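Review form for a predicted model. The reviewer records the input and the model, then writes brief findings.
Reviewer: anonymous (R2)
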Amino acid sequence: MKAVICEKYGPPEVLKLTEVAKPVPKDNEVCIKIHATSVTNSDIFIRGSKLPFPIIIPFRLMIGIFKPRKSIIGLVFSGEVESIGKHIKRFKQGDMVYGLSGFTFGTYAEYLCLKETDTKTGAIALKPNNISHEEATVAAYGGSLAFQYLEKGNIQSGQKVMIYGASGNTGTIAIQIAKHLGAEVTGVCSTANIEMVKNLGADFTIDYTKQSYVPEGAQYDFILDAVGKAKTSKLKQNSKKALVENGKYVSIDNGDLKLSSKQLNKIKEYVETNRIKPIIDKIYPLSEIVEAHRYVEQGHKKGGVAIRVVIP
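Model under review:
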Protein backbone atom coordinates (compact mmCIF):
# COMPACT_ATOMS: atom_id res chain seq x y z
CA MET A 1 0.00 0.00 0.00
CA LYS A 2 0.99 3.64 -0.36
CA ALA A 3 1.98 5.44 2.83
CA VAL A 4 3.84 8.55 3.93
CA ILE A 5 6.72 7.75 6.26
CA CYS A 6 8.58 10.00 8.68
CA GLU A 7 11.92 8.44 9.59
CA LYS A 8 13.39 11.44 11.38
CA TYR A 9 12.30 14.69 13.00
CA GLY A 10 12.58 17.76 10.85
CA PRO A 11 10.92 20.06 8.30
CA PRO A 12 8.07 18.92 6.03
CA GLU A 13 10.57 17.50 3.55
CA VAL A 14 11.32 14.57 5.89
CA LEU A 15 7.95 13.10 4.84
CA LYS A 16 8.30 10.55 2.02
CA LEU A 17 5.59 8.79 0.01
CA THR A 18 6.49 5.14 -0.48
CA GLU A 19 5.17 1.58 -0.64
CA VAL A 20 4.86 -0.47 2.56
CA ALA A 21 3.21 -3.74 3.52
CA LYS A 22 -0.55 -3.62 3.98
CA PRO A 23 -1.52 -4.38 7.61
CA VAL A 24 -3.58 -7.45 8.51
CA PRO A 25 -6.20 -7.11 11.28
CA LYS A 26 -5.86 -9.18 14.44
CA ASP A 27 -8.89 -10.97 15.88
CA ASN A 28 -9.87 -7.84 17.86
CA GLU A 29 -9.18 -5.32 15.08
CA VAL A 30 -10.84 -3.82 12.04
CA CYS A 31 -8.95 -2.98 8.85
CA ILE A 32 -9.98 0.41 7.51
CA LYS A 33 -9.49 1.54 3.93
CA ILE A 34 -8.68 5.19 4.53
CA HIS A 35 -10.44 7.65 2.23
CA ALA A 36 -9.15 10.80 3.95
CA THR A 37 -6.96 12.03 6.78
CA SER A 38 -6.02 15.50 8.08
CA VAL A 39 -2.89 17.47 8.82
CA THR A 40 -3.42 18.59 12.40
CA ASN A 41 -1.32 20.79 14.65
CA SER A 42 -0.48 17.61 16.56
CA ASP A 43 0.99 16.14 13.37
CA ILE A 44 3.13 19.25 12.94
CA PHE A 45 4.53 18.88 16.47
CA ILE A 46 5.17 15.15 16.00
CA ARG A 47 6.96 15.60 12.68
CA GLY A 48 8.99 18.65 13.67
CA SER A 49 9.42 17.90 17.39
CA LYS A 50 9.59 21.66 17.96
CA LEU A 51 8.55 21.95 21.59
CA PRO A 52 10.07 24.05 24.39
CA PHE A 53 12.21 22.55 27.14
CA PRO A 54 11.23 20.76 29.38
CA ILE A 55 8.04 19.68 27.51
CA ILE A 56 10.16 18.13 24.78
CA ILE A 57 11.55 15.47 27.15
CA PRO A 58 8.33 13.56 27.98
CA PHE A 59 7.17 14.12 24.39
CA ARG A 60 10.24 12.38 22.97
CA LEU A 61 9.94 9.59 25.54
CA MET A 62 6.40 8.87 24.31
CA ILE A 63 6.90 9.38 20.58
CA GLY A 64 10.53 8.41 20.07
CA ILE A 65 13.86 9.72 21.36
CA PHE A 66 15.78 10.26 18.12
CA LYS A 67 13.03 9.65 15.54
CA PRO A 68 9.31 8.83 15.55
CA ARG A 69 8.80 5.34 16.96
CA LYS A 70 6.01 4.83 14.40
CA SER A 71 7.28 5.82 10.97
CA ILE A 72 3.75 6.34 9.59
CA ILE A 73 2.29 9.26 11.53
CA GLY A 74 -1.15 10.87 11.32
CA LEU A 75 -3.92 10.87 13.94
CA VAL A 76 -7.24 11.24 12.09
CA PHE A 77 -9.04 9.08 9.57
CA SER A 78 -12.28 8.55 7.71
CA GLY A 79 -12.91 5.56 5.52
CA GLU A 80 -14.51 2.17 5.01
CA VAL A 81 -14.21 -1.05 7.00
CA GLU A 82 -12.55 -3.44 4.55
CA SER A 83 -12.27 -6.47 6.82
CA ILE A 84 -12.74 -7.44 10.47
CA GLY A 85 -11.21 -9.84 12.99
CA LYS A 86 -13.35 -12.71 14.27
CA HIS A 87 -14.03 -11.05 17.65
CA ILE A 88 -15.36 -7.75 16.22
CA LYS A 89 -18.96 -6.94 17.23
CA ARG A 90 -19.49 -3.20 16.65
CA PHE A 91 -18.63 -3.00 12.96
CA LYS A 92 -19.11 -4.95 9.76
CA GLN A 93 -17.46 -4.94 6.36
CA GLY A 94 -18.56 -1.91 4.34
CA ASP A 95 -19.31 0.37 7.31
CA MET A 96 -18.24 3.98 6.81
CA VAL A 97 -16.27 4.98 9.89
CA TYR A 98 -14.17 7.83 11.23
CA GLY A 99 -12.05 8.47 14.27
CA LEU A 100 -8.70 9.01 15.92
CA SER A 101 -5.76 6.62 15.95
CA GLY A 102 -4.02 7.85 19.12
CA PHE A 103 -0.60 6.33 19.73
CA THR A 104 -1.17 3.90 16.88
CA PHE A 105 -0.76 6.86 14.47
CA GLY A 106 -0.66 5.43 10.94
CA THR A 107 -3.36 7.46 9.16
CA TYR A 108 -1.06 8.78 6.43
CA ALA A 109 -1.64 5.54 4.56
CA GLU A 110 -4.16 3.63 2.48
CA TYR A 111 -5.02 1.15 5.25
CA LEU A 112 -5.07 1.14 9.05
CA CYS A 113 -5.85 -1.57 11.61
CA LEU A 114 -7.38 -0.56 14.97
CA LYS A 115 -9.12 -2.17 17.92
CA GLU A 116 -12.85 -1.49 18.07
CA THR A 117 -12.68 -0.67 21.80
CA ASP A 118 -11.56 2.77 23.01
CA THR A 119 -7.93 2.84 24.14
CA LYS A 120 -5.01 5.22 23.90
CA THR A 121 -4.35 3.55 20.55
CA GLY A 122 -7.56 4.70 18.94
CA ALA A 123 -11.31 5.25 18.87
CA ILE A 124 -13.70 4.46 16.01
CA ALA A 125 -17.33 5.36 15.32
CA LEU A 126 -19.72 5.35 12.39
CA LYS A 127 -19.11 8.39 10.18
CA PRO A 128 -21.70 11.19 9.92
CA ASN A 129 -23.69 10.35 6.80
CA ASN A 130 -24.24 13.91 5.55
CA ILE A 131 -20.63 15.01 5.11
CA SER A 132 -17.65 13.91 3.04
CA HIS A 133 -14.76 11.83 4.33
CA GLU A 134 -12.57 14.95 4.23
CA GLU A 135 -15.06 16.88 6.36
CA ALA A 136 -15.33 13.91 8.72
CA THR A 137 -11.62 14.06 9.55
CA VAL A 138 -11.97 17.74 10.46
CA ALA A 139 -15.03 16.96 12.59
CA ALA A 140 -13.25 14.12 14.40
CA TYR A 141 -10.22 16.14 15.48
CA GLY A 142 -11.65 19.62 15.99
CA GLY A 143 -14.92 18.29 17.35
CA SER A 144 -13.23 16.02 19.88
CA LEU A 145 -11.08 18.86 21.21
CA ALA A 146 -13.97 21.33 21.23
CA PHE A 147 -16.34 19.04 23.14
CA GLN A 148 -13.63 17.86 25.54
CA TYR A 149 -12.62 21.34 26.65
CA LEU A 150 -15.97 23.11 26.45
CA GLU A 151 -17.30 20.49 28.85
CA LYS A 152 -14.82 21.79 31.42
CA GLY A 153 -16.71 25.10 31.34
CA ASN A 154 -20.12 23.56 32.07
CA ILE A 155 -21.54 26.28 29.84
CA GLN A 156 -25.04 27.47 30.62
CA SER A 157 -27.46 29.47 28.49
CA GLY A 158 -26.75 33.20 28.73
CA GLN A 159 -23.14 32.85 29.81
CA LYS A 160 -20.41 34.75 28.02
CA VAL A 161 -17.73 32.69 26.32
CA MET A 162 -14.53 33.76 24.56
CA ILE A 163 -12.92 31.45 22.01
CA TYR A 164 -9.32 32.42 21.31
CA GLY A 165 -8.28 30.95 17.97
CA ALA A 166 -11.85 30.98 16.68
CA SER A 167 -10.90 30.42 13.03
CA GLY A 168 -8.96 27.16 13.47
CA ASN A 169 -10.24 23.60 13.38
CA THR A 170 -11.17 23.45 17.06
CA GLY A 171 -12.29 27.07 17.25
CA THR A 172 -14.73 26.93 14.34
CA ILE A 173 -16.51 23.95 15.88
CA ALA A 174 -16.32 25.34 19.42
CA ILE A 175 -18.17 28.50 18.32
CA GLN A 176 -21.02 26.41 16.94
CA ILE A 177 -21.28 24.19 20.03
CA ALA A 178 -21.19 27.15 22.42
CA LYS A 179 -23.94 28.89 20.46
CA HIS A 180 -26.05 25.75 20.54
CA LEU A 181 -25.63 25.73 24.33
CA GLY A 182 -27.03 29.26 24.42
CA ALA A 183 -23.85 31.17 25.18
CA GLU A 184 -22.96 34.67 24.01
CA VAL A 185 -19.77 34.02 22.06
CA THR A 186 -16.81 36.29 21.35
CA GLY A 187 -14.43 34.92 18.73
CA VAL A 188 -10.79 36.01 18.62
CA CYS A 189 -9.01 35.72 15.29
CA SER A 190 -7.03 37.73 12.72
CA THR A 191 -8.44 40.36 10.37
CA ALA A 192 -8.85 37.98 7.42
CA ASN A 193 -11.09 35.61 9.39
CA ILE A 194 -13.47 38.05 11.10
CA GLU A 195 -16.34 37.58 8.65
CA MET A 196 -16.08 33.78 8.69
CA VAL A 197 -16.19 33.74 12.49
CA LYS A 198 -19.25 36.00 12.48
CA ASN A 199 -20.96 33.75 9.93
CA LEU A 200 -20.38 30.75 12.20
CA GLY A 201 -22.42 32.48 14.88
CA ALA A 202 -20.04 34.57 16.98
CA ASP A 203 -21.90 37.51 18.56
CA PHE A 204 -18.73 39.59 18.83
CA THR A 205 -15.24 39.37 17.35
CA ILE A 206 -11.84 40.67 18.42
CA ASP A 207 -8.91 41.04 16.05
CA TYR A 208 -5.85 40.02 18.07
CA THR A 209 -3.56 41.69 15.52
CA LYS A 210 -5.11 45.08 16.32
CA GLN A 211 -6.17 44.87 19.97
CA SER A 212 -4.14 44.11 23.07
CA TYR A 213 -7.05 44.19 25.53
CA VAL A 214 -10.64 42.99 25.55
CA PRO A 215 -13.26 45.76 25.17
CA GLU A 216 -13.69 47.86 28.29
CA GLY A 217 -16.23 46.32 30.66
CA ALA A 218 -16.32 42.95 28.88
CA GLN A 219 -16.25 39.92 31.16
CA TYR A 220 -16.36 36.21 30.40
CA ASP A 221 -17.56 33.15 32.27
CA PHE A 222 -15.34 30.86 30.22
CA ILE A 223 -12.37 31.35 27.92
CA LEU A 224 -11.19 28.55 25.62
CA ASP A 225 -7.68 28.86 24.23
CA ALA A 226 -8.14 26.83 21.05
CA VAL A 227 -4.63 27.38 19.67
CA GLY A 228 -2.53 26.18 22.60
CA LYS A 229 0.29 27.59 24.63
CA ALA A 230 2.80 27.69 21.76
CA LYS A 231 0.98 30.67 20.19
CA THR A 232 0.45 33.83 22.16
CA SER A 233 -0.32 37.54 21.88
CA LYS A 234 -0.75 40.50 24.20
CA LEU A 235 -4.52 40.06 23.96
CA LYS A 236 -4.25 36.43 25.00
CA GLN A 237 -2.05 37.32 27.95
CA ASN A 238 -4.47 40.01 29.08
CA SER A 239 -7.70 38.10 28.50
CA LYS A 240 -7.55 36.26 31.84
CA LYS A 241 -8.11 39.60 33.56
CA ALA A 242 -11.58 39.67 31.97
CA LEU A 243 -12.80 36.48 33.68
CA VAL A 244 -15.66 36.81 36.14
CA GLU A 245 -15.11 35.57 39.67
CA ASN A 246 -14.81 31.78 39.51
CA GLY A 247 -14.60 31.96 35.71
CA LYS A 248 -12.48 29.37 33.91
CA TYR A 249 -9.64 29.68 31.39
CA VAL A 250 -8.83 26.42 29.61
CA SER A 251 -6.21 25.64 26.97
CA ILE A 252 -6.38 22.68 24.59
CA ASP A 253 -2.87 21.90 25.84
CA ASN A 254 -4.24 21.16 29.33
CA GLY A 255 -4.25 17.38 28.97
CA ASP A 256 -4.22 14.68 26.32
CA LEU A 257 -6.85 14.44 23.62
CA LYS A 258 -9.57 12.08 24.85
CA LEU A 259 -10.13 9.12 22.53
CA SER A 260 -13.80 8.27 22.88
CA SER A 261 -16.23 6.59 20.48
CA LYS A 262 -19.05 7.98 22.66
CA GLN A 263 -17.76 11.48 21.95
CA LEU A 264 -17.42 10.68 18.24
CA ASN A 265 -21.05 9.51 18.24
CA LYS A 266 -22.02 12.83 19.82
CA ILE A 267 -20.17 14.73 17.10
CA LYS A 268 -21.97 12.57 14.52
CA GLU A 269 -25.33 13.51 16.06
CA TYR A 270 -24.47 17.24 16.04
CA VAL A 271 -23.31 17.10 12.42
CA GLU A 272 -26.30 15.13 11.18
CA THR A 273 -28.73 17.52 12.91
CA ASN A 274 -26.88 20.53 11.42
CA ARG A 275 -25.86 21.92 14.79
CA ILE A 276 -22.23 21.96 13.69
CA LYS A 277 -20.61 22.03 10.27
CA PRO A 278 -16.91 21.25 9.89
CA ILE A 279 -14.95 23.88 7.97
CA ILE A 280 -12.29 22.84 5.44
CA ASP A 281 -9.68 25.29 4.25
CA LYS A 282 -7.88 23.11 1.70
CA ILE A 283 -7.78 19.51 0.48
CA TYR A 284 -4.51 18.00 -0.76
CA PRO A 285 -3.86 14.57 -2.31
CA LEU A 286 -1.65 12.23 -0.30
CA SER A 287 1.14 12.85 -2.80
CA GLU A 288 1.24 16.52 -1.71
CA ILE A 289 1.55 15.87 2.02
CA VAL A 290 4.73 17.97 2.19
CA GLU A 291 2.94 21.01 0.79
CA ALA A 292 0.05 20.43 3.20
CA HIS A 293 2.43 20.40 6.17
CA ARG A 294 4.10 23.59 4.96
CA TYR A 295 0.73 25.30 4.76
CA VAL A 296 -0.54 24.18 8.17
CA GLU A 297 2.78 25.05 9.81
CA GLN A 298 2.29 28.70 8.78
CA GLY A 299 -0.51 28.83 11.34
CA HIS A 300 -3.12 30.66 9.27
CA LYS A 301 -5.50 27.92 8.14
CA LYS A 302 -9.27 28.39 8.35
CA GLY A 303 -10.81 25.32 9.91
CA GLY A 304 -8.99 22.14 8.96
CA VAL A 305 -6.77 20.87 6.16
CA ALA A 306 -7.69 17.45 4.78
CA ILE A 307 -5.70 14.89 2.82
CA ARG A 308 -7.52 12.83 0.21
CA VAL A 309 -6.11 9.31 0.25
CA VAL A 310 -8.59 7.59 -2.07
CA ILE A 311 -9.19 9.53 -5.27
CA PRO A 312 -12.91 9.45 -6.19
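Findings: The CA atoms of residues 167 and 197 lie 6 Å apart.
Further findings: Residues 2-141+258-308 form a domain with the Quinone Oxidoreductase; Chain A, domain 1 fold (CATH 3.90.180.10).
Recommendation: see findings above.
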